[in-house]
Amino acid sequence: MNLPPLVFGTLIKRYKRFLADVELDDGTLITAHCPNTGRMTTCAEPGWRVALSDSQNPQRKYRFTWELVHNGQCWICVHTGRANQMAFEAVSQNIIPAFAGYTEVLREQTFGNSRFDLLLRKGDALCYIEVKNVTLRADDGCYAFPDAVTERGRKHLNELVDVVNAGHRAAMLYVIPRSDGTAFRAAREIDPQYADALEAAEVAGVEIHVWHARVAPESLHLSDPVPFN
Q: Which residue segments constitute the domains of the chain, with CATH numbers given?
């Protein structure tokens, strides 16, 4: 997917979850919207270079949206909504072999009491997919999820098990929009209940897929699979 033209600056601080103060390259100080509800550990250090999209809408309270950050090694996409867009594009274009061959790719579809990011359909064959954006790089060099305790994340895993029990395919797709780590694993040190739920879901038949996203200020796209520990 192509990104809109971005403006660049330096992160001053991120606070109140949804706000970030940035000094743009022209010296202007602005407050940007931060579309990421996690702790953003390892991707939100003051002084790092950031890239923002500009709505060019003076009526918006926060005209700019934080898209990317550079940690000195690579660009990282911190806009969680972009993971869903990349996943939809990749699945629609048959880039992920495990999800190739379906005739319909639908977004935001419900099953029971849950809404999943993608539903793939070919005749009576259905595959529900939940997408997660992974920005944490743990101390051991692994990409890890979640970066904060997530009851909602455990709920999604349990409901994907319900999908399998109903006779359909179900999958977790973890999108990793950075390139400075190794394999992927559950962040048991942060949320052991999520790690247990992920293990139980895999045993129950939920598929686990992990893909790198190639991140540049011009574009984002899924590029290659990542090992899952």
A: 6-77 (2.40.50.580), 80-225 (3.40.1350.60)
